[in-house]
């Protein structure tokens, strides 16, 4: 068996960043930028007022009260084309361009209008209530970096930058193949010795959440020829993920079937719990990740291996930094030779620190426990006993 770190390094080395494609802003939410994006315009494009009031020359308001002649009006989208000269001012509204000659705004609360005259009651300073040209950003400034997963705020920024199209990574195509005579699709008739298949459904959702395109190949029976035929359908995908058939039983045929197809085995078996029977290798130019059939084991392995593999495929650059940790919520005994991933709940203590409390029952068949887990507490191989209150590494399952 190899360690989790060794296995992850081999998985990451075996996948490549997918090519880029061009999409419009309306289709870019959640996609990953493939190239830096520079502003095509400055924002604001010219000096604008940040308040309703009057555009004036600050020097004209040095002594107040003073009365100025109103020579025009500047509104958003309809600026005043004249010039504010000494002794004059222009009515102005929020977001409207500041007229030539004016260098300050007097807010309307500090004025009194009478026909074409306005009395200024408070002195203005140069630049007051004016947003200068390029206050937010200037044309040519790179504001969105390659490797960013685009949020609604990012798209709003791109629109303000006058960028209608974006270069993003193509969605990785992940082929999913469940195996086993004992599994059937949810809702299908169940035989006396069969169980409902959940892996492909869960993995497809996981792939979509990560920004990929799942390709469900169905359920392959425990028969090498049929399994090989279904594996052939994965050609053209960026990654084939199988679930089940990766162990050592007489009916665990994935390794055997892949071997007949010229499979280049990278590794088999990892010193982790759950998830020991894990396979990775290459088949006709496609990377293959063989997950255990146990749904919890498959889910844990997806978090440990599939998520970082897809992050590499997408060219994601965020998330670098220290591994997250939390305060341990209960005592744990010494660990054996396998790295342990304990399903755990997260909560905050009185000091505002996150506390991770592993569930009492850690049986890998317990899907309900896995579904309500917030994180996995990572226990290194041969780790000594640890007491409640100490800090432990975690792998988040929600909101990350």
Number of helices: 7
Structural class: alpha/beta
Q: What's the CATH H-level homologous superfamily of the largest domain?
A: MoaB/Mog-like domain
Number of strands: 26
Classify the oligomer: single chain
Tally the structural domains.
4
**What is the CATH third-level topology name of the largest domain?**
Molybdenum Cofactor Biosythetic Enzyme, Chain A
Q: Which stretches are low in confidence, meaning pLDDT under 50 for 5 or more residues running?
A: none
Measured distance between first and last alpha carbons: 29 Å
Largest β sheet strand count, sense and barrel closure:
6 strands, mixed
List its salient traits.
400 residues, alpha/beta, Molybdenum Cofactor Biosythetic Enzyme, Chain A, Molybdopterin biosynthesis moea protein, domain 2, Molybdopterin biosynthesis moeA protein, domain 3, six-stranded mixed sheet, elongated
What does this structure look like?
With 400 residues, the chain is α/β, with parallel strands linked by helices. It has 4 domains: 157 residues, MoaB/Mog-like domain (Molybdenum Cofactor Biosythetic Enzyme, Chain A, 3-Layer(aba) Sandwich), CATH 3.40.980; 51 residues, Molybdopterin biosynthesis moea protein, domain 2, CATH 3.90.105; 84 residues, Beta Complex (Molybdopterin biosynthesis moeA protein, domain 3); 72 residues, MoeA, C-terminal, domain IV (Beta-clip). The chain has a 6-stranded mixed sheet with strand order 7-4-6-5-9-8, with no helix packed on it. A 6-stranded mixed sheet has the order 16-13-17-21-20-18, with helices on both faces. It has a 5-stranded mixed barrel with strand order 22-24-23-25-26. The protein is elongated.
């Amino acid at each position: 068996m190899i360690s989790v770190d060794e296995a992850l390094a081999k998985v990451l080395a075996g996948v490549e960043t997918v090519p880029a494609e061009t999409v419009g802003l309306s289709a870019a939410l959640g996609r990953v930028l493939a190239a830096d994006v520079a502003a095509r315009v400055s924002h604001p494009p010219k000096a604008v007022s940040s308040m309703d009031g009057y555009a004036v020359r600050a020097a004209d308001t040095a002594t107040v009260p003073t009365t100025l002649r109103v020579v025009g009006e500047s509104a958003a989208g309809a600026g005043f084309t004249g010039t504010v000269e000494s002794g004059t001012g222009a009515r102005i509204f929020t977001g409207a361009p500041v007229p030539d000659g004016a260098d300050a705004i007097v807010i309307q609360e500090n004025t009194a209008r009478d026909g074409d005259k306005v009395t200024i009651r408070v002195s203005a300073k140069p630049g007051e209530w004016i947003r200068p040209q390029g206050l937010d950003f200037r044309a040519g400034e790179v504001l969105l970096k390659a490797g960013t997963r685009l949020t609604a705020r990012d798209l709003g920024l791109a629109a303000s930058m006058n960028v209608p199209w974006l270069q993003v990574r193509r969605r990785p195509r992940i082929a999913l193949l469940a195996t086993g005579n004992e599994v059937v699709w949810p809702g299908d008739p169940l035989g006396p010795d069969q169980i409902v298949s959940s892996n492909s459904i869960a993995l497809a959702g996981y792939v979509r959440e990560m920004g990929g395109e799942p390709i469900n190949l169905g359920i392959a029976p425990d028969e090498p020829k049929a399994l090989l035929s279904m594996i052939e359908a994965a050609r053209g995908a960026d990654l084939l993920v199988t679930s089940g058939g990766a162990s050592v039983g007489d009916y665990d045929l994935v390794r055997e079937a892949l071997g007949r197809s010229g499979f280049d085995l990278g590794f088999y078996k990892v010193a982790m719990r759950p998830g020991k029977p894990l396979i990775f290798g290459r088949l006709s130019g496609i990377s293959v990740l063989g997950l255990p059939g146990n749904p919890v084991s498959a889910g844990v392995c997806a978090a440990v291996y599939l998520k970082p593999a897809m992050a590499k495929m997408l060219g994601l650059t965020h998330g670098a930094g220290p591994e997250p940790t939390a305060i341990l919520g209960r005592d744990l005994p010494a660990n054996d030779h396998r790295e342990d991933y304990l399903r755990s709940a997260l909560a905050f203590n009185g000091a505002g620190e996150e506390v991770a409390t592993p569930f009492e029952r850690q049986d890998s068949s317990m899907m309900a426990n896995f579904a309500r887990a917030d994180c996995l507490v990572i226990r290194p191989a041969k780790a000594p006993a640890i007491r409640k209150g100490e800090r432990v590494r975690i792998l988040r399952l929600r909101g990350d």
